[in-house]
Design brief:
18 helices; Rossmann fold
């Protein structure tokens, strides 16, 4: 964000304060240079075979995309599953009832992906699935897949992970997502998995004549974070999509229209669109708080009076939208949603943004977990959403703001353009993977220079560090091969 102080998205639901106080670029630079929490994770590229391997993969990815190639190997259309392939990766401890519940989806994807070649549809389970402790390289090497773009004859391009992050860690998803299109399903029970499978198959047989997209932008009083996301992210994105896709009905809800009541109509109510984009604070709760596992990542709406009026007060449930607000009769109608907000996809046990330089990372939660709101949206008994794109960890404005201010929406615009052209969600998200790879390689070079005596550039280091953490943590929840219902053909 412009200026010398950096603000982070996210509000503490227990206190009404920001989850992370605004920091100067100097403070963040000191974290990058001296904190074991940051350097151990980001500079692992400089030590150890696994770190070297991940950095090497990022560099190859940047080199490949600089030649204008995104997705699987050259010559493969990522919109065609019979060319790109589709696979599911089960954790070793997956309940047999879950596998059975996904049967309708697996049969549907087999018909699509194995139309010409049986190898292009794969079920990775048991010893072939994810093994505890697996890194990306362990899994790929076991299946004769090496470095470089996905070759669906070995491992399909679209990969669905089944299981929570305690069974299949977020890190495995991040690393695999660099060169594959990866999604995750972590639902409440076998019935929820069956409901999701049925919703996907039903949606892909349906085409909407004039589909709707809704853009929902909160702008709370006295809050620069939501002011910027409303002005520099939500409104210009809605205008771009409306201009590029006149066959869509585009609804824009900003400021006083971005209430919890209005969001209830968009998430399972009579106004549910084919595509929903929201930008707001995501709620966070301290470790041990009774609402953490159920309400972490809930969407704070315009009903919140802002930080000045809220500090020191627990945020009441009527000011935010959580999983418990989805009624039993909610109808998601094949929704694809993108939530810009902290913890919208999930939370890690340790705090990657720990701003202390004198100790280990701070304990944030009892364990890694997927946010309850997307779990309920995807597995709803009355017909769930198809996919939720959201953020693990806290998110920063560097997703859409340049290093010195001003909007930089190329990543968001390119992703939405692909999505509205009929690309599966996983393919559309390649632009976020590209951003992560580019920033990570530049940051690694900066850290390497510091070890050889380069004078630290506080502004550059703070921007790169926050941008890298932010870019890495966007993930797809749901099958990465789903697409907007209007493009189901």
């Amino acid at each position: 964000m412009p200026g010398d102080r950096v603000a982070c998205n996210g509000v503490n639901g227990a206190t009404g304060e920001y989850l992370l106080p605004a920091m100067t670029v100097r403070q963040i630079s000191e974290i990058v240079q001296g904190s074991s929490a940051s350097v151990a994770s980001l500079a692992s590229a400089a030590s150890g075979p696994r770190g070297d391997g991940h950095l090497a993969a990022l560099r190859r990815w940047v080199d490949r995309i600089s030649r204008h190639h995104l997705g699987p190997r050259e010559g493969i259309d990522p919109r065609d599953l019979s060319q790109a392939g589709w696979g599911v990766i089960f954790a070793q401890d997956t309940d047999a009832a879950v596998v059975e519940a996904l049967g309708e989806l697996l049969q549907h994807r087999r018909r699509q992906a194995a139309r010409h070649d049986e190898r292009y549809f794969r079920v990775f389970d048991g010893e072939d699935g994810y093994r505890p402790g697996d890194e990306k390289w362990d899994f790929l090497n076991r299946h004769q897949a090496g470095f470089g773009p996905a070759d669906p004859a070995n491992v399909p391009y679209y990969l669905l992970l089944v299981g929570g992050p305690q069974s299949i860690p977020f890190r495995f998803q991040y690393e695999l997502d660099v060169e594959y299109a990866v999604g995750r399903l972590d639902l409440a029970d076998a019935a929820a998995y069956a409901a999701y499978a049925g919703a996907v198959v039903a949606a892909e047989g349906r085409i909407t004549a004039r589909p709707r997209a809704a853009f929902f932008g909160v702008c709370n009083p006295d809050d620069i974070v939501t002011r910027q996301s409303a002005d520099f992210l939500v409104e210009p994105l809605a205008e771009t999509v409306a201009r590029q896709h006149p066959d869509w009905q585009i609804d824009l809800m900003l400021e006083e229209e971005a209430t919890k009541s209005r969001l209830s109509g968009l998430l399972g109510g009579d106004q549910t669109p084919a595509f929903l984009f929201t930008a707001s604070h995501g709620l966070g709760f301290p470790h041990g708080h009774p609402r953490q596992l159920s309400h972490q990542g809930a969407l704070l709406c315009q009903d919140w009076p802002g930080p000045r009026a809220s500090t020191g007060k627990s945020i009441p449930e009527e000011q935010y939208f959580a999983a418990t607000d989805l009624g039993s009769g909610a109808r998601l109608r094949g929704l694809v949603a993108f939530h810009f907000g902290c913890f919208g996809a999930g939370t890690t046990r340790l705090d990657a943004f720990a701003h202390r330089t004198d100790g280990p990372p701070k304990l944030r939660a009892p364990h890694d977990f997927v946010a309850d709101l997307p779990r309920r949206l995807l597995g709803h008994a009355s017909g769930g959403a198809l996919a939720i794109v959201a953020h693990v960890e806290q998110c920063w404005g560097y997703s859409y703001l340049g290093m010195e201010g001003g909007e930089q929406l190329q990543t968001f615009e390119s992703t939405l353009q692909r999505l509205f052209q009929g690309h599966p969600v996983g393919s559309a998200m390649e632009y976020f993977n590209r951003r992560y790879a580019e920033i990570a390689t530049v940051l690694s070079a900066e850290l390497q220079g510091l070890r050889y005596g380069k004078t630290p550039d506080d502004r550059k280091l703070s921007r790169l560090w926050t941008a890298e953490n932010d870019a890495r943590s966007y993930i797809v929840l749901g099958d990465p091969a789903v697409r907007l219902p209007c493009a189901a053909g």
